[in-house]
Specification:
By secondary structure, the protein is an alpha+beta fold. The two termini are 21 Å apart. The N terminus is likely disordered.
Length: 496
């Protein structure tokens, strides 16, 4: 890590040493100490190439830093080389959604009645209509079920349908990921609990009791559309099959230990949401038939509506916790408003790339999704910096970026560090990105982007190993240390 000191303190130390030396003779005839050339201090700071070489990362490093007010690029290396951005892509998605949908946009999840209602009896179908809300959870469905009761509904004699046609049905954000990772669930027009189901296990005698539920802090409804079977094996840890609208899992007994829990991805979002809503409706005295998924956007009388939080709050959570499904669903919503229903994440991302070129004047974006999870996405450091400079004019992005705490020489968080950073991190196996805004304590604000990747090693990782491949954690740790060193260099060299 580079030492942190300002030019003023450096000169103070130099002058102090000169005065001490002069004190050995007659001060009345001693020469006045002369200021050293202003560039000498900055020349003592390690260069970017030296910092990158010291990190000893395999692969390549791309970076750019620019004055935030003028847009002038101060430094760059491989800055026009397209690199996998990982979750840094979510910053572009946030800008896209804010511009197209508006910061106060709210997603609506509705319950419709298709038929006649008489004396609390619906002679027709009840429809749960997904509105593309990425933050819908079990608590929200419970409120909808309660609102149905408050509206006077007591019985439904027709079908119970779940409409998810506002978005395309996508099996997994990135099909190259292992089946069991919760960060790559299915995407559709409805999502519940980020399209994840809670799997818990506890040893009982020689076996295990397992649970699959849609838990929140207030509710823990069990689900029937996802099942888990413990099998006496050591590997693979999980297997998955899609059993006609059911997520059927097995787990290796020897990997379970005494007990634990994890979130698994949901592959049938409409049926999952319908399963949970059926349970919650029953607790309100309303019996629904087995849910059936449907496409299209149905009509009917509105019985209950749930509005999401404003989009700007959703995006702030997305950038803080890097939720992939949130990025995909807000990106799809923006593309849908621009051009109508899109057929895939790739098509939606292509629309966002076009928007970025038109609105931000940014070339060099070739994203294949909105989250950065897909390995084929590419972004250049220079294009990201240009986007950040342009976004600064509107002031929409910076307030919702997470503050990244710099670290001291022992790697501990240093809240007293003079450089303040608001940025989006991005991490995949052997990919590390960081892009955002930095404020030196005594200098102009800057926009920066740093991408490091070893695509050769990534290409050799088997699908089964992609959750935790050997060597990835150490590689990414070195990349993060290099990123801080570059930021400290820029703060020292381009500060006042």
């Amino acid at each position: 890590m580079l030492p942190r000191f300002s030019r003023r303190s450096f000169l103070g130390l130099a002058l102090g040493g000169a005065a001490t030396a002069a004190g050995a003779g007659d001060l009345s005839v001693s020469l006045r100490p002369q200021l050293r050339p202003g560039g000498l201090y900055k020349k003592a700071i390690a260069g970017a190439d030296a910092i990158i070489a010291k990190a000893r990362l395999t692969g390549h490093v791309c970076y750019a830093v620019a004055d935030l007010e003028t847009g002038e690029i101060r430094e760059g290396g491989n800055s026009d080389l397209g690199t996998a951005p990982a979750s840094v892509a979510k910053a572009i998605t946030a800008l896209y959604a804010i511009d197209v949908l508006g910061a106060e946009y709210r997603f609506k999840t509705r319950v419709l009645a298709r038929g006649t209602i008489s004396n609390g009896i619906l002679n027709g179908d009840l429809i749960l209509v997904g509105g593309g809300d990425p933050t819908l959870d079990t608590d929200d469905l419970a409120e909808l079920a309660s609102a149905m009761k408050d509206a006077g509904l007591r019985e439904v004699r027709g079908r119970f349908l779940v409409a998810d046609g506002i978005n395309p049905r996508i099996h997994s954000i990135d099909r190259g990921q292992p089946d069991h990772v919760g960060y790559s669930p299915a995407v559709a027009g409805i999502a519940l609990n980020f399209n994840r189901v809670h799997f818990g296990w506890e040893r009982q005698g020689k076996g295990y009791s397992v649970s699959m539920d849609a838990r929140t802090a207030r509710y823990r409804p069990e689900v029937s559309v996802a099942s888990m079977r413990v099998e006496d094996r050591s590997a693979p840890i999980y297997t998955y099959t899609n059993g006609r609208g059911r997520d059927d899992w097995t787990v290796a007994k020897r990997a379970l230990g005494s007990g634990g829990a994890r979130w698994l991805p949901v592959r049938n979002p409409a049926l999952y949401a319908g399963d949970v809503f059926q349970t919650l409706a029953r607790s309100n005295g309303i019996v629904l038939k087995t849910p059936v998924a449907m496409r299209g956007m149905p009509g009917g009388a509105v019985i209950a509506t749930h509005d999401s939080a404003p989009l700007i709050e959703i995006l702030q959570g997305m950038l803080r916790y890097s939720t992939n499904i949130t990025a995909e669903m807000v990106g799809l919503a923006a593309s849908r408003k621009r051009r109508g229903l899109v057929s895939s994440l790739e098509a939606s991302a292509s629309e966002m790339n076009l928007w970025a070129a038109q609105k931000l004047g940014v070339e060099g974006l070739a994203l294949v999704d909105h989250s950065g999870l897909g390995s084929d996405s590419r972004m250049t450091a220079s294009s990201m910096v240009r986007a950040l400079v342009r976004a600064h004019q509107d002031g929409a992005l910076r307030p919702i970026l997470r503050e990244v705490t710099m670290r001291d020489g022992q790697g501990r968080p240093d809240k007293s560090h003079p450089i303040r950073v608001r940025a989006k991190t991005g991490t995949l196996n052997f990919v590390s990105g960081l892009a955002g805004y930095m404020s030196p304590g005594d200098g102009p604000e800057m926009a920066f982007a740093i991408f490091a990747a070893d695509e050769g090693i990534r290409a050799g990782i088997s699908r089964a190993e992609r959750e935790r491949p050997p060597g990835a954690r150490g590689w990414n740790r070195k990349a993060r240390a290099m990123q801080q060193a570059l930021i400290e260099r820029w703060g020292a060299v381009y500060g006042s």
